[in-house]
Amino acid sequence: GAAPAVHAQAAIRWRLAASFPKSLDTIFGSAETFSRTLKELSGGKFECSVHAAGELMPPFGVVDAIQNDTIQMALTAPYYFTGKDSIFAFGCAVPFGLTARQMDAWMEHGNGRKLMDEFYAKYNIVSMSAGNTTTQMGGWYRKEIKSAKDLQGLKMRLGGGLFGEAMAKLGVVAQNMPAGEVYQALEKGTLDATEFVGPYDDEKLGFNKVAPFYYYPGWWEGGAELEFFINKKAFDALSAENKAMVRAAGAVAARDMTAKYDAKNPIALKRLVAAKTQLKPFPKDVMDAGFKASMEVFGEHEAKSPEFKKIHQDMRAFQRDQLLWDRFSEYRYSSYMTTVKV
Amino acid sequence: GAAPAVHAQAAIRWRLAASFPKSLDTIFGSAETFSRTLKELSGGKFECSVHAAGELMPPFGVVDAIQNDTIQMALTAPYYFTGKDSIFAFGCAVPFGLTARQMDAWMEHGNGRKLMDEFYAKYNIVSMSAGNTTTQMGGWYRKEIKSAKDLQGLKMRLGGGLFGEAMAKLGVVAQNMPAGEVYQALEKGTLDATEFVGPYDDEKLGFNKVAPFYYYPGWWEGGAELEFFINKKAFDALSAENKAMVRAAGAVAARDMTAKYDAKNPIALKRLVAAKTQLKPFPKDVMDAGFKASMEVFGEHEAKSPEFKKIHQDMRAFQRDQLLWDRFSEYRYSSYMTTVKV
Predict the structure, then answer these.
(1) Which of A104, A219, A329 sits opposite B259 (nearest CB)?
(2) Beta-bridge partner residues of A49
(3) Do residues B196 and B202 touch, judged by C-beta distance below 8 A?
(4) Phi, psi at A226, each rounded to 5°
(5) Within an 8 Å CB–CB cutoff, is residue B222 touching chain A?
């Protein structure tokens, strides 16, 4: 027969590698929402396959894989890459940093996204939010933390970022181990504590059975933004229409992740408390020691890197305005709401 | 010559009417962002023209216009329509209700959107968020409000929703007048007070010059969600691809509006204070009287409408969990952040 006169519209197939396992369904779900939305928006002409940590590469290989054009996208926590450059932390969370909404505001209507994308360009990355974990918990401890002294020598599994440097100043001994080994190490006592995310994610790992003291707030993650890292070369090659689809699918995914955390965390927290988790606020001297150590860490990085200093100072100036406004708006409103029975 | 063999792909042209003037660039801007994103996503094949209040119809005519298929979309504050049914308020803000993030969570991962769209169906409406004003201020007053007694006989311009019913119980005499006449009425003293939104929007109207006492927090709008109302018949007739474009363009617009308010409000507040605005917290007895009056209003509507009661109780159950979790997460974190100098 005659060759068909109509050619199928060129299809685009991207690959996204996540630094997270599927079991973290809040975070990993953002990549799935992104992928599904992109497919819907394009009527199937633009697809992005989604791969959990380890499927295509190790969890922390995703930045290199974008740089060498192995993948077109990643879903990650930028602070995993402070070993490359401490500036990565500002794309995610720093100690005593921004909350979820403050981060969105700094990124999209402050200088945040612009400054970060200028920095990311050297890694062939364009960034967009994948959502926010919201304020995290301060982790699980086998014994009570009654003062900052109790952190001395504490063997703790820590997430990424500048927080580890602040904790080291407080005497915490960071332990590196795969997530799958943490439960047993806490049970045996070769590990004293671990931090993770918040009630919904933490509950699945069962830490309450082996480290019942659950401290708050996670002062190192007042709101951790997960990011979609996009291969800049691949993104620049897209049509305006396809670029808009990537951006819009990202907005759908980011809104969804944050709302999901907010909806699911309280219910998980109630279950954890019913299962004998002991909720404890960090003592004030621990918070103060953490703040002092963190500010020293920022000072050290500022002394080494003018680019770090520029971004840090921009973020703090924005934060100061946010903290001022918060006193007259949501924080004040929330203060009253804690006193009434709705 | 021969007729062209290729037909242009069917174009869709929608119209969106806003209940707001262009001068409210935060809120109105959400419709513009929606429209621009929809055009980009569709490569110009799906366009939605955006019309300010009064262009196609009066600001509060938009629900009727969707019901009689005059327009395909509206951008509005659902609580403007509590005259039709008090349930509309839950799609926007109710006294002592949800904050911005809580509203997103209830809507998208609680029962909120499902319950509201079941209700809206009788008006031929499908809803989606257009963004949130975040916690509003409590308005501008010519004289200090030292106790709840000072509200007795106060002539005040009020926004929509159930709040007016609570204020009436406190003795406030609601004044209906166009926004453009408020400044002069305050100057003359025929009006004692007005509430509006927050620093960024309020500043443009110059109220600080004629009513210098600026009270907080706006307990009737802990977070007011603006909504895109979509003509259900028109939406149902769209392809899956075009439906996804409407949803995704909405997500882009909603994220943008909330971030814009958060970024712009603090800077406007500082300018207002520099221009002699006197910031004052509502006295506790005013907050308590407002809370009591509001709960009475909710009780009255619940007694009249099982559907109102069902939605109200669902929202409050969700809110109780949110308030519990807030104590251990962002509220606790923010409490500490108010005590340090970043």
Answers:
(1) A104
(2) A15
(3) yes
(4) -85, 145
(5) yes
What tokens appear for A169 in the block? 């100043």
Q: Does B325 touch chain A (CB under 8 A)?
A: yes
Cα distances (angstroms) measured from residue A68 to each of A17, A48, A56, A234, A235: 14, 18, 14, 12, 14
Six-digit token string for A44: 């199937």
Mean pLDDT in order along chain B per 10 residues (342 residues): 49 97 96 98 97 96 98 97 97 98 98 98 98 98 98 92 95 88 95 96 94 98 98 98 98 98 98 97 98 98 98 98 97 97 95
A65 CB-near residues (< 8 Å, 6+ apart): A17, A56, A57, A71, A74
Q: Which residue of B has its CA nearest to A327?
A: B338
Please tell me what DSSP assigns to residue B70: S
| Sequence ranges of the binding site of B for Na(+) | 196
Query: What is the fold of A12-133+222-265?
Result: D-Maltodextrin-Binding Protein; domain 2 (3.40.190)
Handedness of CA A130, A131, A137, A142 (dihedral sign): negative
What 8-state DSSP symbol labels residue A4?
P
- The answer to whether residue A149 neighbours chain B at the CB level (below 8 Å) is no
Which of A336, A339, A340, A341 to probe the B interface (max B CBs under 10 A)? A336
Residue B322 sits at the chain A interface (C-beta within 8 Å): yes
Chunked in runs of 10, what are the mean pLDDT values of chain A (342 residues)?
49 97 96 98 97 96 98 97 97 98 98 98 98 98 98 92 95 88 95 96 95 98 98 98 98 98 98 97 98 98 98 98 97 97 95
CA angle A222, A228, A229 (to 5 degrees): 115
**What's the Cα-to-Cα distance from B55 to each of A53, A156, B36, B68, B288, rounded to whole Å?**
53, 62, 19, 17, 42
Buried b / exposed e along A273-292 (16+ C-beta atoms within 10 A): beeebebbbbbeebbebbbe
Q: pTM value?
A: 0.96
Judged by DSSP in three states, B126 sits in strand
The H helix count followed by the E strand count for chain B is 12, 11
Rounded to whole angstroms, the Cα distance separating A247 from A38 reads 9
Domain limits of chain A?
A: 12-133+222-265
Note the ipTM here. 0.96
pLDDT at B178: 78
Q: How distant, in Å, are the alpha carbons of A101, A111, A113, A262 from that of A107?
A: 10, 6, 4, 20
Residue of chain B whose Cα is closest to the Cα of A325: B266
CA–CA separation, B252 and B247 (whole Å):
9
Contact (Cβ atoms closer than 8 angstroms) between residue A138 and residue A282? yes
Question: From residue A207, how far is each of A178, A193, A212, A216 by CA, in Å?
Answer: 15, 9, 7, 15
Question: Which CATH code of 3.40.190.170, 3.40.800.20, 1.10.10.10, 3.40.50.10800 fits the domain covering B12-134+222-265?
Answer: 3.40.190.170
Q: Taking the CA atoms of A312, B339, A333 and B138 in sequence, report the sign of the dihedral they define.
A: negative
